[in-house]
Every structure is written in C-alpha cells, then in structure tokens.
Design a protein that fits this description.
Layout: H1 23-49, H2 53-70, H3 75-91, H4 95-109, H5 113-116, H6 119-132, H7 136-152, H8 156-172, H9 176-193, H10 196-212, H11 216-231, H12 239-254, H13 260-275, H14 286-298, H15 303-316, H16 321-337, H17 341-349, H18 359-377, H19 380-397, H20 400-411, H21 421-433, E1 443-445, E2 461-468, E3 473-478, E4 484-487, E5 494-498, E6 501-506, E7 509-515, H22 532-535, E8 539-540, E9 545-550, E10 555-559
Parallel strand pairs: 1-5
Antiparallel strand pairs: 2-3, 2-9, 3-4, 5-6, 6-7, 7-8, 9-10
Helix pairs in contact: 1-2, 2-3, 3-4, 3-6, 4-6, 6-7, 6-8, 7-8, 8-9, 8-10, 9-10, 10-11, 10-12, 11-12, 11-13, 12-14, 13-14, 14-15, 15-16, 16-17, 16-18, 17-18, 18-19, 19-20, 20-21
C-alpha cells in the first residue's frame, strides 16, 4: 500500500523564532516513496512476464497512487503506469477498467508531452480488445467509444486511427462498402491534420483490401496517390508495403484481358517512376514492364506503338545506364515477338555492353536478340556468327537456366542456309539430358555493427553495393559500422545476410530482400534453376557507380565521380 511519511517540526525558541523547515528529511521521504514506486513497477514487470496480469495491474495502481502524491514532476511516470495498466486490464478481460485508465492517461497527456508519448501504445491495448471482440458491431462499438474520448481531448491522430482500424475490421467481416467509407473518412481526416504517416497507411491498406477483394478499380486511386507521392519523396515509410501491393495488382490483372483504364494507370505509374530520383523499393523499370505486358493484351496488333512508347520512357528516364540497357533488351524481345525486325534491331543497337560482373550475361542476351534479328532478315551467315557468340558467352557465364533459354530462343527461329542450326540443336539436347544444378545454401554474418544516428530517416544510407574490379567480387559495405564483405559472383541464385541486410544474388544481379540493420537474421538457400525473371526485383551491379541501400531497404544509384 501507499506509504506516505510527513514530518511537521515546529520548534519555538525563547524569542518566538520559528526554525526553517527541515527540507533534507522531506526530500529523503520523497525519494523513499519514489524508490518504492519504482520497485512496484519492477515487480509488475515480473508479474507481466509470468502472465499474472492481475498482480501486475494492482502493483501499477499502487505505484500510480504514490506518483500522484509526489506531484507533477512524476507525470511521465504516471503515464507509463496508466499505459501498462490498460494492457494488463485488457489481458484479464476488464475492458471497462482499461477504459478508465486510458481516460486518465488522456487527461495526463493534456498536461504534458511526456504523457502524450504513451498514448499510441495504450491505444494499441484498446485496439487489441477490439480485435478480440466477437462480431463487427462489438468491435466498432469499442473503437467508436475510444474515438469520442480522444476527440474530447483533442487527439486528432488517434481519432483518425480509430476510423482506420474500424475500416480494417469491416474488411475482415466482408463489409466492403463500409470499409470503403471508413477508409475515405480516415484519409480525409489525415489529410486535413497533416498526418502523412497515417495517411500513407490508410491509402496503402485501402488499396490492399480492395485488391484482395478483387476490386481493382477501387484500389487504383489510393495506390496511385501513394506511389506517386513516394516517387516525389513523400510518405516513404510504406514503400515496401506499396511494392507488394503493386506486384499483387499486376498479378490480379495479368491473367485476364485488362480494361484500357487499368493499362493507362500502369503507363502513368511508369512515367512517374521514370522521372523520380527517390530511392526505390519497387524497381524503376517494373511499372514499365507491367504496362507493356498489359497493353499488348489489350491491343496486340499495335505492338510497335506500344514498344515505341516504352522506349521513349526509357530514353528520358532518370535511371542508371545499366537499368536502361536491360529495359531496351526487354523491349527488343517484344518487338521481335511482333515481327518488327527493324525496331528490334534499333533497340539492340542502343545497348553498349559495359564492364562489370554482368558483362558476359548482357552480351549473351544482346547477341541472342541480334541473331534472331538476322534470322528474320534471312542472313544465315550473320545468324550463325551471332548465335555462336551468344551460346559461347552464356556457357561461360555458367547459368544453366539462362543457357537453356538462349538455346530455346535461337532454335525457335529457322533461317535457310544456316550451318550452325543443327549443331545448336545437338548442344541443346545434350544440355537437356544433364542433371539440374543444386541450389546454393544461404549464408549470414555480422561484424562491426554500428548505431544508426538519432536523426536518421527512411532514406539514410546504411549500405553500399559496389564492384571490386581487381578482386572481381561484389562488395557490401556497412556505412554505419564501417565493415565490409566480399561476395563471389556465382551464377546460381543464393541468399546472403550481412549486418541485418538480406540480399538475393544471381551472378552480378542483386535484390534487397530485407533490411533490419544490426538485427538477427538468417539466410535460406534457393533452388538452382531460377531465371532472372523469376529472381524478381533485381538490379545489375555496375562499374559506373554504387547502389546505396537506405534504412528502409530502398535502393538508389550513386554514380562514381
């Protein structure tokens, strides 16, 4: 129980003089009380870990009573107690008591910022109670009550969070119109109060729930608004979530004949991404590839115009040359599929093969397309020369799946008078009879991990990925801790984790799978047959500069000076 000692000392001297109050004794008593409150909080933590939530809550209430007697200097301590009591009372099913202590915390937050900092966490406890409530009506009733409370205490961010969470419950219950209305209200409120982080999550979740429900057109507006904002450098906290939504959006439309509205939506995202210089999670050329693919489904007879539209975006894009080269080759492939030999040849001519770990792979891809162009032109001698160069280069790369794809592309085109065609057939058959390669195991390590600066943000640079020409290895450098790791260029898919950065590698191409600086993480193996397309969100390691990895796992290219 709360112990309070107060001593009143009044000593009257002969001349009726009152001595000063004995502050040291009072100070000692206050310190003893504060120490006792601290001990109660420690005991409550132990009870919480033991799942004795009732005992934990009782001890916290005793501590709060002591802090209340000690005055405003302990408002922060009281706020911590209130926040923890909310969680404990929710855990024992006493939602009414949890509301009472949440209300006390709101009143403390109105007095001091140190108490306000506990509000979000305490709200999480109430929101947890709503999650566990049976039925949508009960869930909404809890959150509506919280909303009234926080509105009365002028906490607009929490008020809009209630709408956001209510929308999530409506989505889970299948009430899609209700979900849509609640998200729209949350988005509108968050715009009005300038809550950009909350706004980003409401836009993201509205898009996610609509995609999941097959409501593609309802997902387009919030997803476009958020993605375009991120390309401009705003609302970047949700970049990884948006990348997942964009990928899901593409899958939802790729298996069916999309409407023109959806195709135009992707072209607009491609153009926005091409102009952006913001670090990206969704690869800069991926929106273009999706727009190209879907447009060809809608108007297959206008492939030339579609490819030319894509080529203009690539030409004007704010992308490193290595990314542009890859995009031009993909556009050339589409042109060849449409039998537009002239356009395919022009696109291949734009690709100069650079030095670096992707050189032979890129050279083999270009030579393959060049050979097909020559075959369609009827030049057997040129076809033989280019086809042999493509096969030899890809064989030296050593990636079986890529070599098989090279053979398949070359043998799909016949040219009269070729002296190499039958030999290519024999080599392809031999390759098919060989066993498939095993996958690489994952590797993980950590060394010299530093501490992120207190003022770091989503796009603080944490790692760099570069090419060591002398060692012929990829180098991962920890810009915070100062350590580095060299990675072999092996043309089989594998996962590597270094100081919390999770990478996927395929030869000289790399993708960021996860980013948790300094965190414990593992790295699983990958099957050996994955192709570059299946590998996903890759970028080529370049000799022209370094790829910077930011705190939220985004990538940005920094040219060498």
């Amino acid at each position: 129980m709360y112990r309070h000692a107060r001593r009143a000392l009044a000593t009257t001297l002969l001349f009726a003089t009152v001595l000063p109050a004995q502050e040291p004794q009072q100070s000692d008593a206050r310190q003893a009380d504060a120490q006792h409150a601290s001990e109660l909080r420690a005991a409550s933590s132990a009870a919480w870990r033991a799942k004795d939530f009732r005992t934990a809550s009782d001890k916290l209430k005793q501590a709060d009573a002591i802090y209340a007697q000690l005055g405003d200097s302990h408002i922060g301590d009281r706020a911590v107690c209130c926040r923890a009591i909310v969680h404990n009372e929710v855990a024992v099913g006493e939602i009414e008591t949890a509301f009472e202590w949440f209300e006390r915390l709101l009143q403390l937050a109105a007095k001091h910022d140190s108490a306000a900092r506990q509000l979000d966490d305490a709200y999480g406890g109430i929101a947890g109670a709503a999650n566990n409530a049976q039925g949508l009506e009960s869930q909404h009733r809890i959150l509506e009550r919280v909303r009234r409370m926080v509105q009365a205490q002028r906490q607009p961010k929490l008020a809009s969070q209630c709408l956001h969470d209510m929308a999530g419950h409506s989505a889970a219950a299948g009430d899609l119109p209700g979900m849509q209305t609640l998200y729209q209200r949350a988005i509108r409120e968050r715009q009005q109060i300038g809550d950009t982080v909350g706004l980003g999550w409401s836009l993201n979740n509205a898009a996610y729930e609509n995609i999941r429900a097959g409501r593609i057109h309802e997902a387009m507006k919030p997803l476009a608004k958020l993605f375009d904002a991120q390309c401009g450098g705003d609302m970047t906290t949700q970049q990884r979530a948006v990348a997942i939504n964009l990928a899901s959006m593409h899958v939802a439309t790729a298996d069916d004949r999309p409407r023109r509205k959806v195709v135009d939506w992707w072209w607009k995202r491609a153009k926005t991404a091409a102009r952006s210089d913001t670090p990206f999670v969704f690869p800069p050329d991926r929106a273009l590839r999706h727009a190209l693919e879907l447009d060809l489904l809608v108007q297959p007879k206008k492939a030339r115009a579609t490819v030319q539209r894509g080529a203009k975006i690539v030409r004007d894009a704010n992308w490193p040359d290595d990314v542009k080269r890859d995009a031009y080759l993909r556009l050339a492939e589409v042109a060849l599929e449409a039998n537009d030999t002239e356009l395919a040849g022009d696109l291949c001519d734009r690709v100069e093969v650079p030095d670096g770990p992707c050189r032979r792979h890129l050279a083999a891809r270009r030579a393959t397309l060049d050979a097909i162009v020559e075959a369609k032109r009827g030049d057997a001698e040129a076809f033989d020369e280019k086809a042999r160069a493509a096969v030899d280069a890809m064989r030296e790369v050593g990636h079986r799946s890529a070599l098989q794809a090279t053979f398949d592309a070359l043998l799909a085109t016949r040219v009269r008078g070729s002296k190499e065609f039958e030999q290519l057939q024999r080599e392809a058959e031999t390759l098919r009879r060989t066993g498939r390669p095993g996958g690489f195991g994952g590797s993980a390590m950590s060394q010299n991990v530093g501490t992120l600066p207190a003022d770091s943000n989503d796009h603080t640079v944490v790692f760099e990925l570069s090419w060591d020409e002398d060692a012929e290895k990829i180098v991962v450098t920890d810009r915070i801790g100062g350590s580095s790791k060299q990675l072999e260029v092996a043309w089989q898919p594998r996962n590597v984790t270094f100081n919390g950065l999770g990478l996927g590698l395929l030869g000289g191409y790399v993708r960021v799978d996860s980013m948790r600086y300094g965190g414990a993480s593992g790295a699983s193996g990958l099957p050996g047959m994955a192709t570059l397309d299946e590998f996903g969100n890759y970028v080529p390691i370049s000799t022209a500069g370094v790829w910077q990895v930011t705190r939220n796992g985004a990538l940005k290219f920094e040219p060498r000076r």
